[in-house]
Amino acid sequence: MLAELVRQCRVPVVMDGPAQVWLHPVSAWVVVAAVREALTNVERHASASRVRIALEESRIVVFDNGVGLTGRSDGVNVRHGIRRSIVERMSSIGGSALVTGVAGSGTSVELRWPPDGPVHTPEEPENDTGGVPHLETGLTIAIAGVSIADIGWQLTRLAEHPDPIPAPWVHLLLAIVTVGCATTAIVATNRRAMTTVALMTTVIAISVVLTAWIPESHSGLNWTIGAAGWAVVALGIRGSRETTVAALLVWWIVVCVVVVIDAPTLGMVAHMVYLTVGILYLQIAIVMFASSLHRVVELVASRERQRREVVASHAVETALNQECEQRYRRQLASLLPILRGIADGTVSPKSPEVRSRAQAEYSRLRRLLARVDSMDYPLFADIRDAVDDAEARGVQVVIDAPPDLPELSAGDRDLVAASIRIMLDGSRLRARLTVMAEQDAIDVSVICDIGSTVLERLSDLWSTTDMALTIVDEEAGTVWLRLRCEVSSDQFTTRTDSSIAAASA
């Protein structure tokens, strides 16, 4: 899971520590989510050139060489976001998070979790496949071993012959190449189909050349009869059944034609028929069995992937529920004093301050019940700290979005999130975010009451892209940001039509 985050990070990352650390799925999800947030902060705000992640059994530390927490110049307060998205996440599993940074010296995020908590250990099978893939591997090793052993045994006869044809070094060279092809079947299990065809062609060519080279009087020295076929079978165990059978048939037909042309006798024809029944049929039967076994392996692997997805989905849902429960508790802690004050008469519901606080709490509770700003949707997770900061200033934030929104691409999401953050940061009284899914696009609209300085920041942001920025009425006081992201059947494209239009509040 961490390796995937490292690959996605746009800042070079160096990993130190063990290759694997085993955690309970819920704890693992929380830790990975916290590391993701730390890396996101590095990408957006640190201006760092490298990141180092130190992993231990119950601790992980993310270092960067950026500007540090107090060296930020973009006016965005990340401490609140770190507290909400990292510290509180780690607290939910009994862990802790420590964020330290000095201007110009980078930032360190240290995450700790209980070492004695529920752990997903190697004793719990990592691949619940019943050993079927090992059976396929064992068959490949066995067949390749037969080919190599046959070559070795045949070469001993070569050493006893007084006048071998061709020269012994030629036999040895061709035998080494054939053994190398057979060994590739064992060590290179994920090779491409064209590589397999090339290796089969090499083995067949060696067999045909040697068969044509060796005269009838020395036919006992032709070690490729049998050994070459077993090498082809070993190479085809994980490949196409049709390709392997075709290769065997072509090889055998060509060899038989060469042998019969060299010695057109009834005895030689009978000998080749005997070899066909004794060797070729057996090899084809093993190819058919290996093909069926490979389909079983793929089916078992598919079922295992589905099982893992279910386990991971359950772990994520459990973690999300825990986070949601914590947010409910925080929401009640801030809402109950207002309700109690109104009930006992210590605060007036007509007070502008009380009404503003009540409206902010209503918006927060409404979103919490809808769960649109939780980790369910990545865009809302990216802007959640900006929403919380705006509400802390008394801004009434409303978010409208349907469930099961398709995800934005990484580039589109970063641009949209950055624009929304700028608008929320400059909003004074109210802000409304609406996300709608259409048949072939997602439409994101943000309406805020912002000033000219915020418009300048938006202009600077959009000046680095190919999209257009349009301002209709800069003095109206309320600005409408609209972004439309086209979507194909499997992903969003980077084409984004945008406009910023102002209308009166």
Oligomer: single chain
Strand content: 5-15%
Largest sheet: 5 strands, mixed
Task: Using the CA coordinates, give the radius of gyration.
Answer: 34 Å
Given as residue ranges, the uncertain stretches (5+ residues, pLDDT < 50) are: 71-80, 117-127, 467-474, 489-505
Number of helices: 13
Q: Termini distance?
A: 46 Å
Helix content: 55-70%
Mean pLDDT: 75
Number of E strands: 10
Helices and strands, in N-to-C order?
HEHEEHEEHHHHHHHHEHEEHEE
Principal-axes geometry comes out as elongated
Kindly report the spatial arrangement of strands forming the biggest sheet: 1-2-3-5-4
Supply the helix-strand structural class.
Answer: alpha+beta
Question: Topology of this protein?
Answer:
Elements: H1 2-8, E1 13-16, H2 25-46, E2 51-55, E3 59-64, H3 78-91, E4 96-101, E5 107-112, H4 132-160, H5 168-187, H6 193-213, H7 224-236, H8 241-262, H9 266-344, H10 352-370, H11 378-392, E6 396-400, H12 410-426, E7 430-437, E8 441-448, H13 452-463, E9 477-487, E10 492-504
Parallel strand pairs: 1-2, 6-7
Antiparallel strand pairs: 2-3, 3-5, 4-5, 7-8, 8-9, 9-10
Helix pairs in contact: 2-3, 2-9, 3-11, 4-5, 4-7, 4-9, 5-6, 5-7, 6-7, 6-8, 7-8, 7-9, 8-9, 9-10, 11-12, 12-13
